Amino acid sequence: MAHYQHRGSIPPKRHTQHRRPDGGLYYEELMGEEGFSSDSSLLYHRTIPSAIVDARTWVLSDQQTVPNEPLLPRHLKLHELFTDADADTTDVVTGRRLVLGNEDVRISYAVSRAASPLYRNAVGDECVYVESGAATVETVFGNLDARQGDYVLVPRATTHRWIPTGDEVLRAYCIEANSHITPPHRYLSRFGQLLEHSPFCERDLHGPSEPPNVAETDVEVYLKHRGSGPGGITGSVHVVPHHPFDVIGWDGCLYPYTFNVADYEPITGRVHQPPPAHQVFEGHNFVICNFVPRKVDYHPLSIPVPYYHSNVDSDEVMFYVDGDYEARKGSGIGKGSVSLHPGGHAHGPQPGAAEASIGKHYFDELAVMVDTFRPLELGEAGRACDDGAYAGSWNRTRG
Length: 399
Ligand SMILES: [Fe+2]
Prior knowledge:
Layout: E1 5-8, E2 27-32, E3 40-45, E4 54-58, E5 66-67, E6 74-77, H1 86-89, E7 97-101, E8 105-112, E9 118-121, E10 126-132, E11 134-139, E12 142-146, E13 150-154, E14 160-165, E15 170-177, E16 205-206, E17 217-226, E18 233-242, E19 247-252, E20 257-260, E21 279-283, E22 286-291, E23 294-295, E24 315-323, E25 337-341, H2 353-357, E26 362-363, E27 365-372, E28 377-378, H3 380-384
Parallel strand pairs: 9-17
Antiparallel strand pairs: 1-19, 2-3, 3-19, 4-18, 5-28, 6-25, 7-8, 7-28, 8-15, 10-13, 10-15, 11-12, 11-14, 13-20, 16-20, 17-18, 21-22, 22-27, 23-26, 24-25, 24-27
Bound molecules: fe (ii) ion (FE2).
């Protein structure tokens, strides 16, 4: 993010004395990416941010994956993974169940009414899509209000916690990168401003409130970090002597933020627009796109649903959030479904869907797509909610 922000109390010059009312120094921390050579922020703490009084292992939920072999397109029914009662005792951090993953990105799902512990993902950035419900995401930078349809972007190693709010259960589709997640570079000027052709701009990105400045002692922080576990990921718990939310001010270009999918302005055309026209974010070796309610193709002979496509370098994961997905009619796919269309298999509309779409002017559909450039494997949750029948759905006559 090159969108400079500041909150709270900061000194006029960086790396200079910033003193408390009692005359002592605040503790300056630089949080920066790519070895002091990319975006960063400076945070001013009341207590030393390095202090640790104890550490133990955090046994992560099952992170093992198995190859998608024999190669098949799959339909995963995420809403079958949790009961409503599960949500009372599940939080969005420790309760995540792994659906799909590879060396670059992991997709997991959680349903929650419970507050999470303090959490820091030191493996990579997170992009959590709020399928339903609402939450306050408390972070070391300040609070984010997360609501249905929000992407919550949390930079690597940002200490935070999820507190569900409101009556509706919080459903979170969690995209964890091994890298950073940013708007596509082609949307950005060479200095980092979102360009006129971008489907969203800085006004649509919502950063944290004022820093929280919490005073508590002996606090646990759950860390996910590079290590010896499955996928090279391990969990640890640090007990720290002072609450990490002791920041009195910060400034810079690195901070968590939200972007609501309803603020994405779709790009449409006379004929079918390819998925890159729907892109919202990117990480290393994957992209995130969204298909939002929109006017569809208006050439007099257009076919609004996609052509069959073999995107030979990608595995494609579509999460169907809302509406009525025209191309998938007759496949059993509905709200809460995930389709996995792996590289090496040409996919497209189910039988009859292309003809049925002709003459439509508007698609009332909402889906979040992750395309990965390396093959995805199935996590325990992906295997648990696989409908086992989707691969045959193109053989049936639409009825
Ligand atoms: Fe596709």
